[in-house]
Amino acid sequence: MWIAHFAQGLVAKPFVPRVPLALLTFAGALPDAVFFLLQFLGIETFNFDQSIAGHAGCFPYTNDYPFSHSLAGMVVSGVILAVLYKTFASVPASPKDMAVIVAVSASHFLLEWPSHRQDIKITPHDSTALGASLFDHPMTTFLVENAIFFAGLWVYTSFTPASSKAGTNANPNLLKMLSAFMVLQQAHFCFGAAPTSETRWVHAPLFLFEILASCWMLGWMDGQTNSLGINGVDGRAPEALKKLK
Fold it and tell me: Whole-angstrom Cα distance, residue 60 to residue 76?
Protein backbone atom coordinates (compact mmCIF):
# COMPACT_ATOMS: atom_id res chain seq x y z
CA MET A 1 0.00 0.00 0.00
CA TRP A 2 1.01 3.63 -0.25
CA ILE A 3 -0.91 6.55 1.33
CA ALA A 4 -2.72 4.12 3.64
CA HIS A 5 0.55 3.67 5.52
CA PHE A 6 0.39 7.28 6.69
CA ALA A 7 -2.95 6.59 8.37
CA GLN A 8 -1.35 4.71 11.26
CA GLY A 9 0.57 7.81 12.26
CA LEU A 10 -2.55 9.96 12.01
CA VAL A 11 -4.45 7.55 14.25
CA ALA A 12 -1.57 7.38 16.72
CA LYS A 13 -1.22 11.15 17.15
CA PRO A 14 -4.08 11.61 19.67
CA PHE A 15 -2.47 8.98 21.91
CA VAL A 16 0.99 10.59 21.87
CA PRO A 17 0.45 14.31 21.16
CA ARG A 18 4.04 15.22 22.05
CA VAL A 19 5.46 13.04 19.27
CA PRO A 20 5.65 14.98 15.99
CA LEU A 21 3.16 13.92 13.34
CA ALA A 22 5.95 13.89 10.75
CA LEU A 23 7.73 11.22 12.79
CA LEU A 24 4.59 9.17 13.39
CA THR A 25 3.63 9.11 9.71
CA PHE A 26 7.22 8.25 8.85
CA ALA A 27 7.02 5.33 11.30
CA GLY A 28 4.01 4.03 9.36
CA ALA A 29 5.96 4.13 6.10
CA LEU A 30 9.30 3.19 7.67
CA PRO A 31 9.53 -0.37 6.27
CA ASP A 32 9.12 1.04 2.75
CA ALA A 33 11.75 3.71 3.41
CA VAL A 34 14.14 1.06 4.74
CA PHE A 35 13.44 -1.10 1.70
CA PHE A 36 14.19 1.62 -0.80
CA LEU A 37 17.38 2.49 1.07
CA LEU A 38 18.49 -1.15 1.18
CA GLN A 39 17.59 -1.56 -2.48
CA PHE A 40 19.68 1.47 -3.38
CA LEU A 41 22.57 -0.10 -1.43
CA GLY A 42 22.08 -3.43 -3.24
CA ILE A 43 21.04 -5.39 -0.14
CA GLU A 44 17.40 -5.92 -1.12
CA THR A 45 15.95 -5.82 -4.63
CA PHE A 46 12.82 -5.03 -6.58
CA ASN A 47 12.65 -5.43 -10.33
CA PHE A 48 10.27 -4.06 -12.91
CA ASP A 49 8.04 -6.89 -14.15
CA GLN A 50 6.49 -6.37 -17.56
CA SER A 51 3.99 -9.19 -17.01
CA ILE A 52 2.49 -7.30 -14.07
CA ALA A 53 2.54 -4.01 -15.93
CA GLY A 54 0.89 -5.73 -18.89
CA HIS A 55 -2.30 -6.43 -16.97
CA ALA A 56 -2.26 -3.00 -15.30
CA GLY A 57 -1.49 -4.12 -11.77
CA CYS A 58 -0.32 -1.64 -9.13
CA PHE A 59 3.35 -1.54 -8.22
CA PRO A 60 4.59 -3.66 -11.16
CA TYR A 61 7.64 -5.11 -9.44
CA THR A 62 8.83 -8.44 -8.10
CA ASN A 63 10.39 -7.94 -4.70
CA ASP A 64 13.04 -9.57 -2.56
CA TYR A 65 12.98 -7.77 0.79
CA PRO A 66 13.32 -10.30 3.62
CA PHE A 67 14.60 -7.77 6.15
CA SER A 68 12.53 -4.63 5.61
CA HIS A 69 9.27 -6.45 4.84
CA SER A 70 9.20 -9.15 7.43
CA LEU A 71 7.20 -8.50 10.57
CA ALA A 72 10.33 -9.04 12.65
CA GLY A 73 12.22 -6.51 10.54
CA MET A 74 9.43 -3.96 10.90
CA VAL A 75 9.56 -4.27 14.69
CA VAL A 76 13.35 -3.86 14.70
CA SER A 77 13.09 -0.79 12.45
CA GLY A 78 10.49 0.70 14.76
CA VAL A 79 12.66 0.09 17.82
CA ILE A 80 15.61 1.82 16.15
CA LEU A 81 13.47 4.82 15.21
CA ALA A 82 12.04 5.03 18.74
CA VAL A 83 15.52 4.93 20.29
CA LEU A 84 16.77 7.62 17.91
CA TYR A 85 13.79 9.81 18.79
CA LYS A 86 14.35 9.34 22.52
CA THR A 87 18.06 10.08 22.09
CA PHE A 88 17.77 13.30 20.12
CA ALA A 89 14.44 14.86 21.17
CA SER A 90 14.66 17.57 23.84
CA VAL A 91 11.07 16.83 24.83
CA PRO A 92 11.35 13.68 26.98
CA ALA A 93 10.09 10.57 25.22
CA SER A 94 8.05 8.38 27.52
CA PRO A 95 7.88 4.57 27.28
CA LYS A 96 4.39 5.08 25.85
CA ASP A 97 5.74 7.37 23.13
CA MET A 98 8.36 4.81 22.17
CA ALA A 99 5.91 1.90 22.26
CA VAL A 100 3.50 3.72 19.95
CA ILE A 101 6.29 4.45 17.45
CA VAL A 102 7.21 0.74 17.38
CA ALA A 103 3.54 -0.28 17.08
CA VAL A 104 2.97 2.10 14.17
CA SER A 105 5.96 0.66 12.33
CA ALA A 106 4.89 -2.94 13.00
CA SER A 107 1.32 -2.19 11.87
CA HIS A 108 2.74 -1.71 8.36
CA PHE A 109 2.54 -5.50 8.11
CA LEU A 110 -1.24 -5.54 8.60
CA LEU A 111 -1.75 -3.41 5.48
CA GLU A 112 0.84 -5.22 3.37
CA TRP A 113 -0.72 -8.63 3.96
CA PRO A 114 -3.92 -8.01 1.95
CA SER A 115 -2.28 -5.84 -0.69
CA HIS A 116 0.97 -7.56 -1.68
CA ARG A 117 1.56 -10.52 -3.99
CA GLN A 118 2.76 -13.20 -1.57
CA ASP A 119 6.13 -11.61 -0.86
CA ILE A 120 6.02 -10.60 2.82
CA LYS A 121 7.05 -12.85 5.70
CA ILE A 122 6.88 -13.11 9.48
CA THR A 123 10.65 -13.52 9.80
CA PRO A 124 13.32 -12.87 7.16
CA HIS A 125 14.02 -16.55 6.57
CA ASP A 126 10.43 -17.82 6.83
CA SER A 127 9.59 -20.35 4.12
CA THR A 128 6.02 -19.06 3.81
CA ALA A 129 5.31 -15.80 1.99
CA LEU A 130 2.03 -13.97 2.54
CA GLY A 131 -0.12 -11.66 0.45
CA ALA A 132 -3.65 -11.51 -0.97
CA SER A 133 -2.71 -9.61 -4.17
CA LEU A 134 -4.99 -6.61 -3.88
CA PHE A 135 -2.40 -4.84 -6.03
CA ASP A 136 -3.74 -6.79 -9.01
CA HIS A 137 -6.92 -4.69 -8.78
CA PRO A 138 -5.87 -1.04 -9.19
CA MET A 139 -9.28 0.61 -8.78
CA THR A 140 -10.05 -1.40 -5.65
CA THR A 141 -6.61 -0.56 -4.28
CA PHE A 142 -7.17 3.12 -5.02
CA LEU A 143 -10.52 3.19 -3.21
CA VAL A 144 -9.35 1.14 -0.23
CA GLU A 145 -6.20 3.19 0.29
CA ASN A 146 -8.08 6.46 0.14
CA ALA A 147 -10.68 5.14 2.56
CA ILE A 148 -7.99 4.10 5.06
CA PHE A 149 -6.07 7.36 4.74
CA PHE A 150 -9.12 9.59 5.16
CA ALA A 151 -10.34 7.49 8.09
CA GLY A 152 -6.98 8.15 9.74
CA LEU A 153 -7.25 11.84 8.90
CA TRP A 154 -10.70 11.94 10.51
CA VAL A 155 -9.31 10.39 13.70
CA TYR A 156 -6.52 12.97 13.74
CA THR A 157 -8.77 15.98 13.22
CA SER A 158 -11.45 14.70 15.61
CA PHE A 159 -9.44 13.52 18.60
CA THR A 160 -6.03 15.23 18.59
CA PRO A 161 -5.73 18.04 21.16
CA ALA A 162 -6.04 21.52 19.68
CA SER A 163 -2.51 22.32 20.86
CA SER A 164 -1.22 19.61 18.50
CA LYS A 165 -3.05 20.99 15.46
CA ALA A 166 -1.24 24.31 15.12
CA GLY A 167 -0.90 24.06 11.36
CA THR A 168 -4.51 23.23 10.58
CA ASN A 169 -5.72 25.85 13.06
CA ALA A 170 -3.59 28.52 11.39
CA ASN A 171 -4.40 27.54 7.80
CA PRO A 172 -7.93 26.23 7.14
CA ASN A 173 -6.98 25.31 3.57
CA LEU A 174 -4.11 23.08 4.61
CA LEU A 175 -6.26 19.95 4.91
CA LYS A 176 -7.67 20.45 1.42
CA MET A 177 -4.22 20.91 -0.08
CA LEU A 178 -2.75 17.87 1.65
CA SER A 179 -5.78 15.74 0.79
CA ALA A 180 -5.51 16.61 -2.89
CA PHE A 181 -1.79 15.86 -2.86
CA MET A 182 -2.36 12.44 -1.29
CA VAL A 183 -5.14 11.49 -3.70
CA LEU A 184 -3.00 12.46 -6.69
CA GLN A 185 -0.08 10.51 -5.27
CA GLN A 186 -2.24 7.42 -4.82
CA ALA A 187 -3.66 7.78 -8.34
CA HIS A 188 -0.14 7.77 -9.74
CA PHE A 189 0.71 4.72 -7.64
CA CYS A 190 -2.31 2.78 -8.88
CA PHE A 191 -2.60 3.94 -12.49
CA GLY A 192 0.69 5.56 -13.46
CA ALA A 193 3.36 3.80 -15.47
CA ALA A 194 6.87 3.16 -14.13
CA PRO A 195 9.18 5.91 -15.47
CA THR A 196 11.92 3.47 -16.52
CA SER A 197 13.02 -0.11 -15.89
CA GLU A 198 15.92 1.14 -13.72
CA THR A 199 14.83 0.42 -10.18
CA ARG A 200 18.04 0.89 -8.21
CA TRP A 201 19.13 4.30 -9.45
CA VAL A 202 15.75 5.82 -10.40
CA HIS A 203 12.75 4.18 -8.77
CA ALA A 204 14.18 3.62 -5.28
CA PRO A 205 15.36 7.25 -4.82
CA LEU A 206 12.08 8.58 -6.24
CA PHE A 207 9.91 6.47 -3.93
CA LEU A 208 12.08 7.35 -0.93
CA PHE A 209 11.78 11.04 -1.76
CA GLU A 210 7.98 10.71 -1.98
CA ILE A 211 7.85 9.15 1.48
CA LEU A 212 10.04 11.81 3.08
CA ALA A 213 8.22 14.66 1.35
CA SER A 214 4.81 13.27 2.30
CA CYS A 215 5.73 12.91 5.97
CA TRP A 216 7.23 16.38 6.05
CA MET A 217 4.10 17.88 4.50
CA LEU A 218 1.74 15.94 6.77
CA GLY A 219 3.80 17.28 9.67
CA TRP A 220 2.63 20.77 8.75
CA MET A 221 -0.68 19.90 10.38
CA ASP A 222 0.69 19.80 13.92
CA GLY A 223 3.27 22.54 13.39
CA GLN A 224 6.19 20.39 14.54
CA THR A 225 7.78 19.68 11.16
CA ASN A 226 10.74 22.00 11.68
CA SER A 227 11.50 20.83 15.17
CA LEU A 228 10.70 17.11 15.32
CA GLY A 229 10.17 17.75 19.01
CA ILE A 230 13.69 19.12 19.47
CA ASN A 231 13.49 22.90 19.42
CA GLY A 232 9.88 23.59 20.31
CA VAL A 233 6.74 23.99 18.22
CA ASP A 234 5.94 27.21 16.38
CA GLY A 235 8.19 29.16 18.68
CA ARG A 236 6.96 27.54 21.88
CA ALA A 237 9.59 26.33 24.31
CA PRO A 238 9.89 22.55 24.77
CA GLU A 239 8.34 23.00 28.24
CA ALA A 240 5.00 23.65 26.54
CA LEU A 241 5.16 20.24 24.95
CA LYS A 242 6.11 18.57 28.19
CA LYS A 243 2.65 19.43 29.55
CA LEU A 244 1.03 17.25 26.88
CA LYS A 245 0.30 13.71 27.98
Answer: 27
